[in-house]
Structure formats: C-alpha cells, structure tokens
Write the structure tokens for this entry.
Amino acid sequence: MTTASTSLSVLFVCLGNICRSPTAHGVFATLVASKGYSETITVDSAGTGDWHLDHAPDQRTAEVAKSKGYDLSALRARLVTPEDFDQFDYIIAMDNANLSDLRAMQPEGFSGHLGLFLDFCQQSPSEQPKPQEVPDPYYGGEEGFELVFALVEEASMGLLEHIESNHLQALRS
Ligand code: 4NP
C-alpha cells in the first residue's frame, strides 16, 4: 500500500460476518460508489468464527439496513484467512476480540493497516461518548442493531475521509 497505488482495498471483520461487518461492507461500499470511487476502492467483509458460513446477513441486521436504504441481501458470510493480509490494504476490526484474533494471524510482512473501525469515527452519533468498539448485537435487542448502524455510518464517513486525504488526493494530483 502506497500513495502511488491505483487501487485500495478494505476488509471489515467481525465475529460472525452476519451483523456488524456486513453492515459496514454495505454502508461503506455505498458511500464509495456515491463518491465515484467504485473503480478505485474494493470493499469486502469476513468473520473470525465459522458458525454462519455462506449465510446471508442476520434478518435483524438486514431489516435495519433496509429501513435506512441499504440492501445487504447479496452478501454471504465467509471466514477471514491469512491470504486476506496479502490482498487487503485496510483490515478493520469491529471490536478488540476481533482485533486480537486478527493480530494472531497477521503475517510478519503485512504492511497495511490493521485497527479498530471506530478509530475513524470523528464524533459520537448520539449523546453518549463515542465507544471504542462496535458492540456485538447478536444476543441483544433491536436497539443494539440501530446502534451498530449509527456507529457504522459515522465511522464509514471518517474512514473514507482518511483514505481520501492519505491516498486518493495523491492519485488525483
Ligand atoms: P457479528 O455478530 O459478529 O456482528 O456478525 C454475531 C453473529 C453471530 C454470533 C455472534 C456475533 N454467534 O455467536 O453466532
């Protein structure tokens, strides 16, 4: 990954790849497309756990996303693999457990960015202080899925601004 590269790739990772990372995948890919970067930025998502391989996003996740205008129905869960570290410039974890699982599989030569999604969040989407992690909504209620969505939208904007200023401006000039 350098500022001279002509493309950039982003992988969002959570535990099951059916709630948080598919939300991030759908929201960030839509934002990328709306800014005209679809040819430049590749977006994908994966999970560290294998319980839901090939499953579509959780129905509660899909419904919240649909209510905000995002269609996640084409996405299918997959496991994160060591090869992902060769393919992706940004590997973005939803919580600290995901991050430590990813750090454990990170090959020595990985020169991309591995970190937490909410590090790119510039402000809290609610009255509450900005959390450090996107909380796992799977065993909770509806409000958890709404919170995931709000955090993902805010962090997606911050991540794209970061990429624009660190990578894309050099391409355009
Ligand atoms: P995600 O949520 O990591 O945001 O996709 C979960 C989905 C499934 C499980 C846990 C979290 N599970 O235990 O099956």
Observations:
- The mean pLDDT is 94.
- The domain at 8-172 is CATH 3.40.50.2300 (Rossmann fold).
- The chain has one domain: 8-172.
